[in-house]
Write a structure and sequence with these properties.
The chain is α/β, with parallel strands linked by helices. Helix content is 19%, strand content 29%. The chain contains 3 helices and 12 strands, in the order H-H-E-E-E-E-E-E-E-E-E-E-E-H-E. It has helices at residues 2-18, 21-27, 169-181, and strands at 47-50, 53-60, 65-71, 76-79, 82-85, 88-95, 108-111, 118-120, 134-137, 145-147, 160-163, 187-189. The strands form 2 sheets. Strands 1, 2, 3, 5, 6, 8 and 10 form a 7-stranded mixed beta sheet that branches. The longest helix is centred in the first third of the chain and has 17 residues, at 2-18.
Length: 190
Amino acid sequence: MKSFKKVLAYALAATLALGSCTSVLAAAPKSPVNPPATRYEKLSNATATGKSGSVAKVYTTKGGNAGINTVKNAKSVTVPSTVTVNGKPYNVVVISASAFSKAKKATKITISKPARTITFKKNAFKGCGKNLKTVTIKITKKSQLKAQKNAFKALKKSVVIKVGKNTSAKELRKIRRALKNAGFKGKVTK
């Protein structure tokens, strides 16, 4: 009965927000366990695989995008630009809060060329290992870097962030500004 009330509450709230009962009922969650539709609707919390095998715990969206929740603990960590979950490819567009908190051994983290804009959520690197020396973010002309406040704050000043070698001076200034606003105090180079 409680589960039915939850589903009914979700449907009613969506009806008020959208103003159309028929479109809401078509998009209503099939199970009371699922949250209402959001920008990044959680379809799975599976282990993603990249070229080197299992890389992270992820969530995926109906739009073909993925967010990285937890990255595996290894000396060298590479987050691929696309991940495969249940045989379907997804573009990595979000690095979630505390995604690198278990990467205690990491000395090098590489974010592969994103297919589109990649967003680092607040405290993405919080709890990351003290051994970390470099973070490489392979930004291209087609992609951008967005970072929430304090996303990079946890990184030591000695950490160097490297961006794509083909990054223009204008793009590099923009990335430096975004990283500084996100709490990064170290050096940003090509």
